[in-house]
Every structure is written in structure tokens, then in C-alpha cells.
Amino acid sequence: MIRFQGVTKLFKRHRVLDGIDLGIELGERIALIGSNGAGKTTLIRCLLGEYTHGGEVTIAGGSPRRERTAVLGKIGFVPQLPPPLKMPVGQLVDFAASLCGTDPRRMHEIAARLGLDMQDILARPFNRLSGGMKQKLLIAVALGRDAKVLVMDEPAANLDPEARHIFFQLLAERLEDTTMLISSHRLDEVAPLVNRVIEMDMGRVVLDDRVADDTGLASMYNVHLSLTRADAAIAKALAGWSFADRRDGIDWHGQVPGPDRLRFLGMISRYVGLVARIEMAEIPDDLVLQ
Ligand SMILES: Nc1ncnc2c1ncn2[C@@H]1O[C@H](COP(=O)(O)OP(=O)(O)OP(=O)(O)O)[C@@H](O)[C@H]1O
């Protein structure tokens, strides 16, 4: 599906990509990880045909540089930094939909599922939306088309827990027929979403590993937590996960998306001295709200 062959990129004399060879097949979900400056964004930009470079990149046999419109119509891209566009939201969605020959209503539908009130923001300039709203809209624009390849740069970073869950569900609906490339600094953010991890360092691939495929992308867990005493810091952290205080800041209840279990427990581990009891149970599929 995607081929990088001997891809190199230099900025002045600085070699940012140093002979990248990678083959990525349909249905693979890749976490592209690595520290700041490792070359992840540059590799993605080469994949999107934005840079000249050495070597060759192809998507389904086509070159994203030479056949830009045709190839880019097959890719959904969620950038890390939203573009500073002043265009009203409604116009932006219509424009994006026309570029890839899709119905804008599909994008509206996904935005609504993510909790965006589209009617309310149609006439507002994109750059005036909040960070989370921009990210939801960019996800809707990327997913509301028949993309065979989804490229996402830290896509869930600004989303609240409810929207993260819907986002994971949306990805779960696309598992069979899409190749995903998800870039992140942090493996724990993306590990549950992927089946292969590629780590870059100084412009090279330093690790390429298959990981266990978590089939529970759309799963949800009921969580009961009891503390040894009330504490303002953990109360604030739990409120950020939309947990409800069931008894004087001591007993808490909430729901955690399956792919976020590790992140949630990571947060709890900071307060482990306060934890008396924790219970996590998967909610049966038919009871998880869509
Ligand atoms: N347009 C540019 N001109 C000059 N140097 C650049 C340019 N874009 C990136 N670089 C350099 O290329 C290297 C790789 O950058 P890149 O943005 O690809 O890394 P990254 O892995 O995506 O990092 P981050 O996680 O911080 O986003 C860095 O040293 C960066 O300074």
C-alpha cells in the first residue's frame, strides 16, 4: 500500500531522513514514534508529497508528488498543528469535501458524533475555534471520505474523554479497509490503537516491531475507585476524566475507553498512596452507547 524506498531528505546540509526503507500494507496500523526532531513529520510530509526528496515514495503504486490530486484524494490527514485558516467552517468543509469528491454531509455527521454543534459554528472562521473544536473538525474532514490511508499526527491529544471514545469507535469502524499511520511522542498514547510500532531516531528507522492487536478499540470500562481520603489533586484529575464523586471525594465512578486504560492507570499511579480499591469491568458491547 505504502512504499518508502531509500528516502532521504536534506535541509541545507542537514540530513533529516537518512535512507528510509519501509513497506506498509493494507490493514496495518502503525505508531510512528521518536523524540523531537527524529524526522517523523518530515517523513509524513514526504508521504503527502509536500517535499522534494531522494528515493521514492508510492501510495497504491502512485507518486504523491507527481500525481498529487489523485493520490491525496485517497489520504485522510489529521495534522498536529491546525492550519491558520480564516475560512468559515461551513465553506471549509464544502471545499475539503469537493477536493476528495465526497458528500460534505458525511463530514458533518462525524463532527456531530464527536460532539461538535455544526449549526452553531458554520459561519465562524476556523481559526477562532477552540483547540479541541479544531481537532474534532479536522478529524471529521479526514474521516468523512473514502480514504484508504489515514495519516494522523497526535490526533487525540486535545480531545476530552467522551470525544476520544467516539474517535476510537470511528477508527474501529475502519480497521478492515484502511492503513493508518499515527505519529506521536508517546507510545502509551497510541499503543492500543496499532499493530506495528516504528521508531525513528536521527532520520533512521531504529525499531520496527509487530505488537499485539487489541481488538477492543471500541470497548468501554466501568470504573469504581475508592480512596483512603479525599484529595483535591486527584479530584481534579478525575474530573478531567468526567468521573462523578459518589461519596465526599472518597468514592468515584466513571467510564474509561478501552484504549485509554493504560493512560488512565498511568494517571492513577501518580496518586497510588491514596488508592484503597479500584475495580474495572468491561461494559458488554450492546450496552456501550454509540
Ligand atoms: N523546513 C525545515 N527547514 C530546516 N530544517 C527542518 C525543517 N523541517 C524540519 N527540520 C529539521 O529536521 C529535523 C526533523 O524534524 P521533524 O519535524 O521531522 O521531526 P519530528 O520527529 O517530527 O519532531 P517532533 O516530534 O518535534 O514534531 C529537525 O532537526 C528539524 O529541525
Automatic annotation (TrEMBL):
PROSITE patterns: ABC_TRANSPORTER_1, ABC_TRANSPORTER_2
Entries under Pfam families matching the protein: ABC_tran (PF00005)
Listed GO MF terms: ATP binding; ATP hydrolysis activity
Residue ranges annotated for the ABC transporter domain, each copy included: 2-227
Alphabetic keyword roster: ATP-binding, Cell membrane, Membrane, Nodulation, Nucleotide-binding, Transport
Keyword Cell wall biogenesis/degradation: no
SMART domains: AAA
Stated family: Belongs to the ABC transporter superfamily.
UniProt-listed PANTHER family: ABC TRANSPORTER ATP-BINDING PROTEIN, ABC TRANSPORTER ATP-BINDING PROTEIN NATA
Protein known as: ABC transporter ATP-binding protein
Organism: Azospira restricta
Taxonomic path: Bacteria, Pseudomonadati, Pseudomonadota, Betaproteobacteria, Rhodocyclales
